[in-house]
Design goal:
The protein has a domain of about 30 residues. It contains 2 helices and no strands. The protein starts with 8 loop residues before the first helix and ends with a helix.
């Protein structure tokens, strides 16, 4: 790749932030799906399904926290702190 084809730091930051936002939004979508109502209405989850849902919610929370850490690091790098 030639030097004139390489992105600037600002372009790298912008694209990285957009990708992190996409990842965080995807984690939110996953959380919303796992917490959704299901058919037949009023039915309960099996113990295994309830445990899996609890584990998934914990993992999604961790994913979002890691994405936020990445965005904070990106902000610090952009601001020079």
């Amino acid at each position: 790749m030639n030097a004139h084809e390489l992105p600037t730091w600002n372009v790298m930051v912008l694209n990285t932030r957009e990708s992190l936002d996409t990842a965080r939004n995807a984690a939110t979508d996953a959380r919303d799906w796992i917490m959704s109502d299901w058919q037949p209405v009023g039915s309960t989850l099996t113990n295994e399904a309830a445990e899996a849902r609890t584990e998934i919610l914990k993992i999604v929370h961790e994913i979002k926290a890691l994405v936020d850490q990445g965005k904070d690091a990106l902000r610090r790098a952009q601001n020079g702190t």
